[in-house]
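// run 5 | inverse folding | seed 20
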């Protein structure tokens, strides 16, 4: 029999690293290879309406066996982060984990240290899965895929368990911010969805940042430096003045919890033109306007000191805190909370200092909180997963299916 662990190990071996510098969708051929594999497996399990969509998204249905229950969806992403290699991943098992530092066999410099990753303390005696230290593991988000596939198999093989229709969706390129580009929520056609893309165990993420991107463009004037007196306007120097006056305490490195920030993360330019890209982040959407106003006021102040320069601030919407959209379908979170309890887990509500595919899907009209899948320390060669936490995530999905099966 194909176990959760077999599946997980099979999926992480497919190189699905997302690529930033391309317009192709999906951004890497491995995502299509994994999609093909998942499509075949879903068909073999007896799922209905299995499709491998153009763009690489895999969709399928676990047909319901009660009348009138709403359709829900389970989603996970096939790509892995470009921040570490995903080529030739060698999943390495640490059974009955001894609670000590974990030395990764392929690279003696890579050690998962208990004092740096305190989550490990709770996992003594469990089965930990790592890479060999030369790549990431890819539990983000292949743990999510393996959990969904295992829960799907369980429901398909046990018709005595009563549930409504469940749509399964495996998406592409989440890690490069394009995870919902090819997702058609009409095709998913569900009342609520769940991304299985949360870290650790027992987490129920129902809140994300709201996010805008500000681009500050500084236009100067270039001339040969030998003839520049009273003529040159150096956009680089003005960018320096601008950056120095951003509020220091409102930065990612000085905020945590529920505090938002302004984060300059790209600076490009020359004498005649400089561009600064700044992330605006807050859990309270209306505060994004206040953050943008800080930049506009600063632009005015700096222009007053450099009247020959032009500073333009353009703000583009990125995504919105999902909590506002989840309110429209309160069952999405309420039934997930109950499913955790039914599975014997006390849910931990978490706010993500970032976004998920669920932020955008919720805004598009498909309420989508995020559930834990047992992954830890992702985007790094020190990534690990806990098999028992993955198994708990399967139980949560099966409970969730039954709870929604009782709804109308
Ligand atoms: Zn992920």
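// decoded
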């Amino acid at each position: 029999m194909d176990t959760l662990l077999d599946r997980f190990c099979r999926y992480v071996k497919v190189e699905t690293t997302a690529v930033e510098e391309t317009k192709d969708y999906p951004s890497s051929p491995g995502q299509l290879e994994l999609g093909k594999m998942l499509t075949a497996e879903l068909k073999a399990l007896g799922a209905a309406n299995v499709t491998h969509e153009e763009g690489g998204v895999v969709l399928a249905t676990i047909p319901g066996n009660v009348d009138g229950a709403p359709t829900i969806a389970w989603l996970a992403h096939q790509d892995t982060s470009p921040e570490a290699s995903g080529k030739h991943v060698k999943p390495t098992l640490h059974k009955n984990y001894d609670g000590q530092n974990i030395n990764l066999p392929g690279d003696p410099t890579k050690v998962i240290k208990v004092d740096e990753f305190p989550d490990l303390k709770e996992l003594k005696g469990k089965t930990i899965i790592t890479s060999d230290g030369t790549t990431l593991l890819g539990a983000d988000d292949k743990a999510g895929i393996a959990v969904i596939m295992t829960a799907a198999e369980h429901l398909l093989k046990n018709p005595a368990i009563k549930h409504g229709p469940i749509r399964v969706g495996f998406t592409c390129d989440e890690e490069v911010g394009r995870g919902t580009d090819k997702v058609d929520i009409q095709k998913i056609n569900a009342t609520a969805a769940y991304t299985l893309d949360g870290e650790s165990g027992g987490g129920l993420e129902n809140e994300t940042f709201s996010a805008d991107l500000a681009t500050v463009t500084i236009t100067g004037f270039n001339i040969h430096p030998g003839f520049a007196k009273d003529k040159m306007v150096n956009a680089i120097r003005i960018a320096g003045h601008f950056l120095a006056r951003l509020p220091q305490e409102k930065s990612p490195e000085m905020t945590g919890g529920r505090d938002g920030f302004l984060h300059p993360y790209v600076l490009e330019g020359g004498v005649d033109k400089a561009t600064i890209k700044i992330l605006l982040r807050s859990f309270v959407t209306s505060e994004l306007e206040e953050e943008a106003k800080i930049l506009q006021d600063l632009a005015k102040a700096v222009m007053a000191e450099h009247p020959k320069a032009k500073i333009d601030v353009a703000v583009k919407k990125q995504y919105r805190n999902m909590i506002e959209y989840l309110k429209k379908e309160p069952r999405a979170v309420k039934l997930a909370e109950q499913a955790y309890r039914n599975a014997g887990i006390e849910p931990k509500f978490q706010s993500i200092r970032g976004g998920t595919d669920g932020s955008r899907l919720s805004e598009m009209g498909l309420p989508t909180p995020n559930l834990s899948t047992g992954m830890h320390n992702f985007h790094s060669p020190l990534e690990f997963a806990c098999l028992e936490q993955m198994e708990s995530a399967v139980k949560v999905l099966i409970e969730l299916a039954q709870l929604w099966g009782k709804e109308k």
